[in-house]
Amino acid sequence: MSHVSTDNKQLVARVRRIGGQVAALERSLEAQADCGALLHQVAAVRGAIQGLMLQLLEGHLREHVATGSASKREAELESVLAVLKSYLK
User: Can you give the chain as a three-state secondary structure string?
Assistant: First the structure.
């Protein structure tokens, strides 16, 4: 996974920001914050996770699906489709 190695610093920083968002959400729940504020925080976390998924998926598609032999591309495509089916449930 050369694309993950290349973007590792950026990916780790993104995951840490997501962790901070989740921690803030937990604190808000413990403080019994207004439900509207909680919904906004959940939406922000969801958006951050989706952004991470998109970044990883784009790198995977560019590095593993768009290159290589037809049989390799087909196998990688099946792998991506399985992940997407699971993610979109």
Answer: CHHHHHCHHHHHHHHHHHHHHHHHHHHHHHCCCCHHHHHHHHHHHHHHHHHHHHHHHHHHHHHHHCCCCHHHHHHHHHHHHHHHHHHCC
